[in-house]
Amino acid sequence: MRQGGGRAAALASSPSAAGETPADGSGGAPIVRLAGVNKRFANGVTALAGLDLTVRQGEFLSLLGPSGCGKSTALRIIAGLADPSSGTVEWSRDTGGGVPGAHDIGFVFQEPTLMPWATVFANVWLPLRLKGVSRHSARDDVMGALALVGLDRFADAYPRELSGGMKMRVSIARALVTRPRILLMDEPFAALDEITRQRLNDDLLSIKVRLGTTVVFVTHSVFESAYLSTRIVVMAARPGRLLETIDVTAPLPRGQDFRMSALYHEACEETSRALQAAIVTAGDSHL
Amino acid sequence: MSTAGDTGTAAALAPSAPHDAPAEAAAVPAPGGVSRTMRILVPVVMLALVVIAWWGIVIAYQIPRYILPSPADVAVAMVTDWPILGRSLLNTLWTTFAALALALSGGVALAILMAQSKWIELALYPYAVILQVTPIVAIAPLILIYAPSTEFALLLCAWIVAFFPVLSNTTAGLKSVDHNLLDLFQLYGASRWRTLWYLQIPAALPFFLAGLKIAGGLALIAAVVAEFAAGSAGAGSGLAFRLLESQYRLNIPRLFAALILLSLTGVVIFAMTSLVSHLLLRRWHESALPRDR
Questions:
Q1: A198 in reach of chain B (CB within 8 A)
Q2: pLDDT-above-70 percentage for chain A
Q3: Fewer C-beta within 10 Å: chain B N or C terminus?
Q4: How many angstroms separate the CA atoms of A204 and A185, rounded?
């Protein structure tokens, strides 16, 4: 499983086991596989060069790297919001073949991205509404998703009446209302304060465990990725590529104990070192 | 779920905020520290002072009524000439509102069409601009020649002037949709129609309403300008014709009365468009929300 430097023996279980042990949440059957994915933008910037990445059932995978490493682009390619210039995106057969249905993917953006003219309920209803589900039939699912993020009492509020953290919760509820197999999150908590962010981290982990959703999480925070992930993929920029993979084997959900544990600190250390390598590799002086 | 702190503080805020807001707006002084009564009282007193000053000047300098009539002369003209003025008012109102209705439907329809395709926009937008920047007074004589009837010509002039703000504002609104929301709609496989209906139209609403406010005022102005341009061709029609007619006959009290009716019409149109805008936006848009300080 691991590529690049091989020093964190304590962190990863043996390389072969890491890929096949769903018990510790670090991965089961592959859901989606990116093979040799390149992405060149019209302005000539190479966002991704030869990315190989497999997302496995049940894992919490973080994509970590400096700006310009293509982590968000990779996420958008998985979501089908961007097309690779070359290379393939292959979904496992049990998602129904090549192209996943809209219900299989949930996406959370860096901003809450709520419709300001719609109530919290109507915002969470949106994915179902676009599938033609009436307000009445969607009611239970919407309220269930809101309860999951602890906002069921705010169904009739408008986004402007909510705090930043609450808006992000609504955004998560909207992504989960279709019960997707895979939840894609693009630096969702980057704009939040540290305290709110930690609480959302804990809640996200408990939701993930409760629903068994697979999560791909883009972040630029070493600590966040080490706390949340079962696997961290460190990427380097110019061109965007995979540099190193780190497994964090502690079971989910994690709590305050894990935050204080040696394992967490080792994971942070290992991840920091990999990220440092990514920055140095890029030879980027204007970071 | 350990959401207690996060949701707890907001619990105190959010459920009450939407319901209390209108009541507060009524009771608490507005940002400038002026109460609601004063906001009505001050302009009314100001109006009374101006009318008294006007009357005083007319009496003090013994100004003849064919130069500056007293407020009483104007009031008398308003009452005695009401059969003439009222019919003219109806004509002008009809032109104005018909033109406004056509401007709204035409402007919105064209904006939606242009939002669907870059090609349509490229083909049509320059001509919309040309139509707008050419002064209507200059086009009006031509329109009067070609139009089958004077009413039709007036309507066409008013429409040309009023539709552009609706078109350009709605176009801007349809384009300024949050890109992430567009991505989200794409992710869930939303059809073009549903994206338009659930996302682009609500997002464009504040822009459209700003255009509506401008178009409402412009429709009246354009109706009056068109009537002026029509001149004798528009005999017996709207308030603007009465203005011209009163001027020729030196019936200045009636001219003032017609002018007051036009002003009031403009004020009523502005109030109506502002009310519509407020009612549609008050729950969510920044422009309609009171600021807490």
A1: no
A2: 85
A3: C
A4: 11
For residues B56 and B48, the answer to whether their CB atoms sit within 8 Å is no
Could you report the per-residue pLDDT of B68-110, keeping only the tens digit for each?
Answer: 999 999 999 999 999 999 999 999 999 999 999 999 999 999 9
Listing from the earlier edge strand, what are the strands of the sheet with A60-64? A105-108, A182-186, A214-219, A60-64, A231-236, A241-247
Task: Tally Cβ neighbours within 10 Å of residue B52.
Answer: 11
| Average pLDDT of chain A, as a whole number | 84
User: Rounded to 5 degrees, what angle do the CA atoms A132, A137, A139 make?
Assistant: 115
Nearest to A130 among B15, B178, B194 (CB): B194
Provide DSSP, B220-264. HHHHHHHHHHHGGGGTT--HHHHHHHHHHTT-HHHHHHHHHHHHH
The tens digit of pLDDT for each residue in B7-16 reads 444 443 344 3
Pick from B180, B186, B284: CB nearest A109: B180
Q: Quick one: pLDDT at residue A11? A: 39
Residue A260 has, within 13 A of its CA and on its CB side, a CA count of 3
Q: Confidence band (pLDDT; 50, 70, 90) for B33?
A: low
Q: Are B66 and B254 in contact (CB under 8 A)?
A: no
Q: Cα(A105)–Cα(A99) distance, rounded to whole angstroms?
A: 11
A217-233: pLDDT as tens digits: 999 899 999 999 999 99
A78 residue type, one letter: I
What is the ipTM metric for this complex?
0.84
Give contacts of A118 with chain B, Cβ < 8 Å: 202
Q: A104: nearest CA in chain B?
A: B188
Tokens of B271: 């109030």
| Cβ of residue A194 closer than 8 Å to a chain B Cβ | no
Contact list, A131 vs chain B (CB under 8 Å): 188
Per-residue pLDDT tens over the stretch A165-195: 999 999 999 999 999 989 999 999 998 999 9
Helix (H) or strand (E) holding B185: helix B179-187
